[in-house]
Amino acid sequence: MAEISSPDFPGERLIVCRNRDLATERARKREALLVATERELARIQAHVRRKGSPLRAAVEIGLTVGEVVNTKKMAKHFALDIRDGHFSWARKVDQIAAEAKLDGIYVIRTSVPAEDLSPAHAVQAYKDLARVERAFRSMKTVDLEIRPIRHWTADRVRAHVFLCMLAYHVEWRLRQTLAPLLFHDTDLEAARAERRSPVASTEPSATAKSKKAIKRNANGDPVHSFAGLIDHLGTMTRNTMRMPLAAKHRFTLLSKSTPLQEAAFKLLGFGP
Questions:
Q1: Is residue 205 within a helix (H) or strand (E), and if so which, with residue range?
Q2: For residue 63, is it within any domain?
Q3: Do 25 and 96 belong together in one domain?
Q4: Strand, helix or coil at 90?
Q5: What is the pLDDT at residue 144?
Q6: Residue 197 domain-assigned?
Q7: 79: Cβ–Cβ under 8 A, 6 or more apart, which residues?
Q8: Distance CA 228, CA 139 (A)
Q9: Contact 263, 220 (CB under 8 A)
Q10: In sequence order, which ranges of the chain are alpha helices (DSSP H)?
Q11: Which residue from 202, 183, 59, 214 is spatially nearest to 130, judged by alpha carbons?
Q12: Do 124 and 27 contact (CB within 8 A), yes or no?
């Protein structure tokens, strides 16, 4: 990680990062795509060379080849020689090597002064954008299902979205508070502190690994998924009872809480 400046971005700080794990993955993926593309190109070449093949015109060969290289997004890495009755290709080795030098490198731009946001915190803020993406995915499809919005006026659409935002805030607060009963990592900050660099990926903490391995928390209680815990809390009932011989006499009967429900309510700070 290094902070630089450029006249192309006046008033902004540029933080250059190189993630070694990301570099390795991009190199692996690029080579896999190159090999897969060459496999398809070899198939087309064999088809062109086959006696009596209908694939002979340069235009038809070009369309077939273009579909392959564009689908794999590898057109920039191949030099193609297409003529009537002829097709060959070769890798652009120099261009591939030049791209490989940038593997794992990305730049974060920010206008926030260094005294308010250090380079490490800027990198972490960028990574935390993944939480925003998960939040929108949760609202749109997974949990709250904000779509479709069956409103037509601007005020009602705003109100609908606002209620979904409030609902997601409640969900976020529940996840934070009930974390000891969930598979959530409760020692995330400690795990981040152990990284060799803010650019490196955060490994799960020992607590999270233990939860995943034995399905229990530090107190020995079973841990659950968030959806599973909410479903279990939803089994509680509140019944209005009426005496058979005294129709006007009614009373409320609550179902008995399970140990898990009691633990959840204790974390939330209220009783059933």
A1: none
A2: yes
A3: yes
A4: strand
A5: 60
A6: no
A7: 89, 90, 91, 92
A8: 18
A9: no
A10: 20-49, 58-72, 93-100, 119-127, 129-137, 154-177, 188-193, 206-214, 226-233, 259-268
A11: 202
A12: no
For 11, the domain range is 2-19+104-125
Output the pLDDT for position 178: 93
Q: Which residues contact residue 135 at a Cβ distance below 8 angstroms, ignoring those fewer than 6 apart?
A: 168, 172
Q: Does one domain contain both 9 and 50?
A: no
Residue 200: inside a domain, yes or no?
no
The whole-angstrom separation of Cα 179 and Cα 224 is 10
Q: What is the pLDDT of residue 30?
A: 96
Query: The pTM is what?
Result: 0.64
Q: Three-state DSSP class for 59? A: helix
Q: What is the pLDDT of residue 244?
A: 76
Q: Which residues of the chain have pLDDT under 50?
A: none
Task: Give the Cα separation of 1 and 127 in Å (integer).
Answer: 14
12 and 30 assigned to the same domain: no
Do 27 and 70 sit in the same domain of this protein? yes
- Say yes or no: 81 and 113 in one domain: no
The structure tokens listed for 134 are 């998960």
pLDDT at residue 89 in the model = 93
- Please state, in angstroms and rounded to a whole number, the distance separating the CA atoms of residues 38 and 36: 5
In the block, tokens 């609550």 appear at: 254
| Domain co-membership, 27 together with 45 | yes
Q: What is the pLDDT of residue 225?
A: 92
What pLDDT is recorded for position 9? 94
| pLDDT at site 219 | 83
Whether residues 117 and 231 fall in one domain: no
The answer to the question of residue 218 being in a domain is no
Domain count, the chain: 3
Query: Coil, strand, or helix at residue 120?
Result: helix
My answer on whether 14 and 59 are in the same domain is: no
CA–CA dist 272, 83 (Å, integer): 78
Rg (CA), the chain: 29
At residue 187, the pLDDT reads 87
